[in-house]
Amino acid sequence: MAKKSPKTSKKDLHEDETAEKEPEPVQEPKRGLIWADLSAEQIQSFFECGEDFDQQISQLTGYMGVQYYEQNPRSTILVDFCYFNLMFCKENGLTLEQTSAFYSIMKKVFDHGIYNKDVAAEESYGYFKALMVKHCMESNPSENQEESQEDVSIQLFELDQLKVITDFISTCFYRNFKAYQLCFALPQPTVISRRAVAVETPLRPPPLAAATEEAALEAEEVAAPEDVGLEEGGSAA
């Protein structure tokens, strides 16, 4: 007789299911604009490219979802803008958190002022200062008060770093503010040019009526050397 397998109780099943479940990772609360656009792994990978500009641009365009970097002038300008912001962070020894936050701050400043021709440089600079202030001092929101990610103030940048950052964007970004707006906020003229292009036309294939069967063609090729040999032998005699 076959032995009966022992019955499994509901308690045992519950214990097995509990043992198989892995603890869910605890997500850290968002702090300002840290990791809003770039993660620590992405920034670290970008910096590890060293001085390989092509590899850096290839990674950055992938992070930004930008295609046709070399073909589209606007894409080139936008990616280069973000590239030099990251290189500024690297040269000035900003941490990964500071780099991520500064990258997102400048991205928001760009979107706020460059795509709208009615935004003046002074208004854009005020928007930039407001974002930076939120990342220079810690706030203690009440438990009952729900604040968005941008409304919470955090202590991320020091005052000396704030001065260096302000000098950088004043000389590099706001000095060319109108030029950026000209490229992105104003419609660009479209020039359509037509050129005559010479295209080679392939020759027509011979008619099928003039075709030779493959077997007959092979027979002619085999017989040709024999005929030549007979002619040479006859002339020698």
From TrEMBL:
Pfam families named among the record's database cross-references: CLAMP
InterPro entries: CLAMP
Compositional bias (Basic and acidic residues): 9-29
Chain segments carrying region Disordered: 1-29
Protein name: Uncharacterized protein
Organism: Heterosigma akashiwo (Chromophytic alga)
